[in-house]
Specification:
This protein is of the alpha+beta class. It is built from 8 helices and 4 strands; from the N terminus they run αααββαααββαα. The chain has helices at about 1-20, 30-35, 40-60, 100-170, 175-210, 235-255, 300-365, 375-405; strands at about 65-75, 90-100, 260-270, 285-290. It has a 4-stranded antiparallel β-sheet, with no helix packed on it. Helix 4 packs antiparallel against helix 5 (about 175-210) and helix 4 (about 100-170) runs antiparallel to helix 8. The protein is rod-shaped, with a radius of gyration of 40 Å.
Length: about 400
């Protein structure tokens, strides 16, 4: 029985090692998953919106289309003729509006700032989605480890059940152990069912992010140190770009006080007077320059300028809030990481102690003292602790992935 238990445990341990050391299927790697993640529709939408903003910046400085007019002026109705009335003429005119240059430049700058804001938002979104991808891979690894541990426990409980049945047949009062074993096996079945549900959720998330991830393991994770500069956080950079957008809005509102200009030129073709109508048929040209006057500025430009300044103050406050939130989030995740690492180390120490006890019990059994059930109990305790270690490793890796996603890496 001892040889059978040791062989079963070793085979399961080797199988677990093969599962997590096997190369990724289909030649995939985490770098390839990252490349596929960059093509996610959510990121493509941000890039396309950024391109739209840059095109808007170009359009913002252009003049509007000129207006061409063709008509007849002062045409008599009672005696319809182009030669009976001196002011009658055929007219061809063109007018061109020239919007305020400073305002156009400010509007273009605002679109450029929006494009820069979108670039920062895309970097933030990619960092978050990359962290989600890593967390999903970490969870998939944890689930696979837990499934393996649960199945090993179930196998050991089967061996323990045979030992207990032998003891019952020998007349020892250990019938209650069978009920305990049955209860533990029921708990294992329930845990396996729960893990299957968790695996389905993780697979669905991977399908959304990268359309499946094959057998790619999570990358090695080390926490990135924060320099203390708030601008090192993605969210703070996005908030800072919001300030530049608001600054451009203030410049645009200030420029709105300046005049818009316009040019008008009209060519008027005239005919000489008919018989009895003595007037020359020389042509006329009319020209004019127009400009706007902010007569209603107190009810138009002034409120718009106050609104733009309020937006800028709001953006500055959001920037400060983003810096506080990001710093607090970083500290919380770093604390979670350190706690998980400490718990992992403590569990390692406990497992080392249990292994020594199991080896001592095995030595006693092989020398003919006692039975083998204490050895199995020790192996079961070790598997429980290994499961907890897997949970702590996953907790640590989740925290590191999320912590790193807060910081700008390039």
């Amino acid at each position: 029985m001892a040889r059978k238990s040791r062989k079963s445990f070793s085979l399961l341990a080797c199988s677990l090692g093969l599962v997590f050391s096997a190369p990724p299927l289909f030649g995939q790697s985490f770098e390839e998953l990252e490349a596929r993640l960059r093509d996610h529709p959510a990121l493509q939408a941000l890039r396309q919106q950024t391109q739209a903003y840059r095109e808007d910046a170009v359009a913002a400085v252009a003049w509007p289309d000129p207006v061409v007019s063709v008509g007849v002026n002062n045409f008599p109705l009672l005696d319809p003729s182009f030669r009976s009335y001196l002011p009658t003429n055929k007219a061809l005119g063109i007018s061109q509006q020239i919007p305020n240059r400073t305002e156009r430049a400010a509007r273009s700058e605002r679109w450029k700032r929006r494009a820069a804001h979108n670039d920062a938002a895309e970097a933030l979104q990619f960092a978050r989605m990359r962290a989600e991808l890593i967390v999903a891979l970490v969870e998939r690894r944890r689930i696979a480890e837990q499934v393996s541990f649960r199945r090993q426990q179930d196998s050991l409980y089967g061996e323990l059940e045979q030992i207990v049945q032998g003891e019952i047949a020998a007349g020892r009062p250990v019938l209650f152990r069978l009920a305990e074993i049955d209860l533990q096996q029921s708990e294992i079945d329930r845990a396996l069912a729960d893990l299957e549900g968790e695996k389905a959720e993780v697979d669905a998330r991977l399908q959304d992010l990268v359309v499946g991830a094959g057998n790619v393991p999570p990358p090695d994770l080390e926490p990135q140190a924060w320099s203390g500069n708030p601008d090192a956080f993605h969210a703070v950079r996005v908030a800072r770009e919001n300030i530049t957008v608001a600054d451009a809005g203030v410049s645009e509102a200030q420029a709105a006080w300046k005049p818009d200009w316009g040019l008008q030129v009209t060519y008027q073709q005239r005919d000489s007077g008919a018989s009895g109508m003595r007037f020359p048929g020389d042509d006329w040209v009319s020209a004019a320059v127009t400009f706007s006057v902010p007569l209603w500025g107190s009810r138009s430009q002034a409120p718009a300028l106050r609104a733009a300044r309020a937006e800028r103050e709001s953006a500055r406050n959001r920037h400060m809030a983003a810096a506080r939130t990001a710093a607090a989030r970083y500290a919380a995740l770093d604390a979670t990481r350190r706690a998980a690492e400490a718990a992992f180390a403590a569990l390692q120490t406990k497992i080392s102690a249990i292994r020594e006890q199991v080896q001592a019990q095995r030595t006693r059994y092989e020398s003919g003292i006692g039975d083998y059930s204490p050895v199995i109990d020790g192996e079961l305790a070790e598997l429980i602790l290994l499961g907890r270690m897997a949970d702590e490793q996953a907790r640590r890796d989740r925290a590191v992935a999320q912590l790193n996603s807060l910081l700008v890496t390039s």
